[in-house]
Amino acid sequence: MGRRGRAARPVGRCRRHGYEAVHVRGAGLAEEVRAANGGRGVDLVLDPLGAAALDLDLDLLAPGGRIVLFGNASGAGPAPLPPLTRLLGANATLTGFSHGGLLVQAPAKVAAAVRRALDLLATGALATPVTVLPDLVDVPAAHDLLAAGRGEGKYVVALNP
Questions:
Q1: Of the four listed, 92, 129, 132, 159, which is most buried by Cβ atoms within 10 Å?
Q2: Interatomic CA distance for residues 7 and 21, integer angstroms
Q3: Dist CA 118 CA 121 (whole Å)
């Protein structure tokens, strides 16, 4: 929202892909999200950082909200969970999600979700930008973009036999 510099491009890209509200991580994020949401927090936080941002997640939540941890994009070791009193005081639900675990435990659920996503892609209801990297030597630069939070969509390497 109205951010300048490096953050302005990702915000614009997100808006082009249909997001109604876009907020960039940084100081004041919780207040910005609350202001955009009528003064209240959000009902759901999907956190790919592996517990590294749990304090922020709790700051963002509305009473009775849910935090879903999946992955560990931060690359850091597992962060400690917040004190039980903080979770209870926030009336928060904290849960984890593992695509790999679900694939083993409930493959039919994963198959149905993949089928639904492919249907959305096929009908054009869902669009994912794809960047084709011409060679393996381009992969480190793409990883750098992703690590800096500036990557967009999916990256595919086109290898010529």
A1: 92
A2: 14
A3: 5
3-state secondary structure 12-32: HHHHHCCCCCCCCCCCCHHHH
Condensed to tens digits (0 to 9), the pLDDT of residues 9-25 reads 667 777 777 777 888 77
Q: How far apart are CA 73 and CA 59, in angstroms?
A: 20
Map out the domains of the chain as residue ranges: 1-40, 129-161
Q: Nearest-5° angle of CA 123, CA 46, CA 90?
A: 140
Of 142, 140, 135, give the one whose Cα is nearest residue 157. 135
- How wide is the angle at C-alpha 136 spanned by C-alphas 132 and 141, nearest 5°? 75
pTM beyond 0.90: the answer is: no
Closest CA to 150 of 26, 32, 11: 11
Report how far Cα 85 is from the mean position of its chain's Cα atoms. 26
Three-state secondary structure call for residue 92? coil
